């Protein structure tokens, strides 16, 4: 039994160890300007097809997604609370945006993104970011594993080609073998190059090498340009563009507009913050540093407000790109700034070069991200942790794949809370004795809250107790209104029986909760313990 407890402690209590040594994926090298800039370049290359794809999902122009990746990435890198984290347009937000765009048009999307940013700033001002620290560890593991699966499944779409009838079919024959070979080459370079040198990010070397090989050997491989044409259906499609232009959303500024955009803005703000703050926590664990969650809320909000005024679709943190950045040695704000500026440079000056990059190289990079993100140790430990924790891990992973991470995290937190409540509801009991003054003392053990009030009421023998009864709270806490009602009901029973109930050793916060029962019971506040509460420091 003790061995299992030690294994459980070694797995769940420490940090989230996502560093899989057999793949040698996550660089722990100290930050440097060179590492940050080269890492930013790698991220920028991988951002292009993702931003285009998410723009397509949201039913907006490709440049709307690319501008969002630039604006959100730049502002959060400068003002956000987590150096090294990459933000941009994401699929989780795009799937919510599409219905708004289809029903009301893209201008309403810009207004919604603007309001979304305001709500996120308010979340930071009111210090709501600290609550992300309350997400249970099994939920985090499920979130990470689920996202790894989602990233993997998203890349499989690159192995499909048009079937000539408006649909998609899987590659076969030579194109498939070329694709698989290039993906394998990319992954091999990323894995083995760090064993020889870490002077240049292996992901960047892999992308450049595979691109040069495809061009040099004139291989039939799908490129970023082919992807763009396939997404838009336009043979003249390109990522080329100019600087984003200031643009006030062309919508009526009245109550009717607010009624349309507010529900979307609220959902987008919540999803964006959940994804961003969970990614922040993940990067914290990998880099063994501490980000500032409330500052990140404000940074995300400022970025989305800017998107609303510059015709971009808005965004949040991107776990895949953040992992590429960390893997490539990016640690400081310079890495995110470099990624954003280089993406803009691609749009303005180097679109033709970026469009030549084979998708296989980018797929290989993302496959390595998947291998590094997935918590493989969770399989080995599944039998050694409580069944409820194992269930939460699998549940959150599954819901993340089927729906989205915001719903998955909410489901995971709710299930974990219910399990917690059930476990603690069973652990309330008393040790009883008669003191020197003849009063009966009930020494209560375990928290008194909504889940334990039924058991609490059954612990007392009102009929046979002496005139004075003391409930000792030295080992217990009054947690919520249900507990207050239970104490009130117990005091009423003793009053009707002509007896008096005393509460002893309540903490100050517990005493404050008992305002309703205070008229019925005598509260002894001598020797009250002092409890620490959640702090906004470093949040």
What does the model show?
This protein is α/β, with parallel strands linked by helices and about 550 residues long. The chain has helices at about 1-10, 35-55, 60-80, 90-105, 105-125, 135-155, 175-195, 200-215, 225-230, 255-285, 295-310, 320-325, 335-350, 350-355, 360-375, 375-380, 385-400, 405-425, 455, 480-495, 510-515; strands spanning about 85-90, 160, 170, 315, 430-435, 440-445, 470-475, 500-505, 520-525. The chain has two domains: about 1-375, no CATH class; about 425-525, Transcription Regulator spoIIAA, CATH 3.30.750.24. Strand 6, helix 19 and strand 7 form a beta-alpha-beta unit. Helix 4 crosses helix 5 (about 105-125) and helix 17 packs antiparallel against helix 18. The longest helix is centred in the middle third of the chain and has 33 residues, at about 255-285.
Brief overview, please?
Helices cover 59% and strands 7% of the residues. It is of the alpha/beta class.
Please render the helix and strand layout as text.
Elements: H1 2-12, H2 33-57, H3 62-79, E1 87-88, H4 91-104, H5 106-125, H6 137-156, E2 160-162, E3 168-170, H7 173-196, H8 202-217, H9 224-232, H10 255-287, H11 293-309, E4 316-317, H12 319-327, H13 333-348, H14 351-354, H15 359-373, H16 377-381, H17 387-402, H18 405-425, E5 429-434, E6 440-445, H19 453-457, E7 468-475, H20 481-496, E8 500-504, H21 508-513, E9 522-524
Parallel strand pairs: 6-7, 7-8, 8-9
Antiparallel strand pairs: 1-4, 2-3, 5-6
């Amino acid at each position: 039994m003790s061995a299992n407890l030690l294994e459980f402690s070694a797995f769940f209590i420490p940090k989230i160890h996502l560093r899989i040594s057999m793949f040698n994926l996550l660089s722990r090298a100290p930050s440097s300007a060179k590492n940050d800039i080269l890492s930013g370049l790698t991220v920028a290359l991988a951002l292009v097809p993702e931003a285009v794809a998410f723009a397509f999902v949201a039913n907006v122009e490709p440049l709307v997604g690319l501008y969002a990746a630039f604006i959100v990435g730049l502002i959060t890198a400068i003002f956000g609370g987590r150096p090294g984290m990459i933000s941009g347009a994401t699929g989780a937000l795009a799937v919510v945006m599409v219905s708004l765009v289809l029903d009301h048009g893209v201008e309403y999307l810009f207004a919604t993104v603007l309001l979304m940013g305001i709500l996120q700033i308010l979340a930071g001002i009111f210090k709501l970011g600290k609550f992300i620290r309350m997400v249970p560890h099994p939920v985090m593991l499920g979130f990470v594993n689920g996202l790894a699966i989602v990233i993997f499944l998203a890349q499989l779409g690159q192995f499909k080609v048009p079937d000539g009838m408006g649909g998609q079919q899987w590659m076969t024959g030579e194109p498939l073998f070329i694709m698989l070979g290039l993906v394998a080459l990319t992954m091999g370079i990323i894995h083995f190059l760090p064993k020889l040198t870490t002077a240049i990010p292996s992901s960047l070397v892999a992308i450049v090498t595979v691109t040069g090989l495809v061009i040099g050997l004139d291989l039939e491989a799908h490129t970023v340009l082919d992807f763009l044409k396939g997404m838009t259906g336009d043979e003249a499609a390109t990522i080329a563009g100019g600087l984003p232009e200031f643009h006030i959303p062309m919508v009526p500024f009245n109550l009717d507009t607010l009624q349309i955009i507010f529900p979307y803005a609220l959902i987008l703000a919540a999803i964006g913050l959940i994804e961003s703050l969970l990614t922040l926590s993940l990067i914290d664990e990998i880099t063994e540093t501490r980000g500032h969650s409330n500052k990140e809320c404000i940074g995300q909000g400022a970025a989305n407000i800017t998107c609303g005024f510059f015709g971009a679709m808005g965004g949040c943190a991107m776990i895949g790109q953040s992992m590429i950045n960390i893997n490539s040695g990016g640690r400081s704000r310079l890495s995110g700034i470099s990624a954003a500026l280089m993406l803009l440079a691609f749009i303005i000056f180097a679109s033709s070069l970026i469009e030549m990059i084979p998708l296989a190289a980018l797929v290989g990079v993302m496959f390595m991200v998947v291998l590094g993100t997935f918590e493989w140790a969770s399989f080995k430990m599944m039998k050694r942790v409580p069944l409820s924790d194992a269930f939460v891990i699998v549940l959150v992973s599954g819901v993340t794949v089927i729906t989205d991470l915001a719903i998955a995290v909410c489901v995971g937190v709710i299930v974990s809370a219910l399990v917690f409540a059930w476990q603690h509801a069973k652990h309330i009991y008393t040790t009883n004795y008669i003191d020197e003054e003849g009063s009966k003392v009930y020494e209560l053990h375990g928290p008194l809250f909504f889940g334990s009030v039924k058991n609490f009421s059954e612990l007392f023998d009102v009929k046979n107790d002496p005139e004075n009864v003391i409930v000792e709270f030295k080992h217990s806490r009054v947690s919520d209104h249900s507990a207050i009602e239970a104490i009130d009901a117990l005091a009423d029973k003793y009053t009707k029986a002509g007896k008096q109930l005393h509460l002893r050793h309540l903490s100050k916060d517990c005493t404050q909760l008992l305002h309703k029962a205070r008229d019925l019971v005598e509260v002894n506040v001598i020797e009250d313990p002092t409890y620490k509460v959640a702090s906004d420091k470093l949040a």
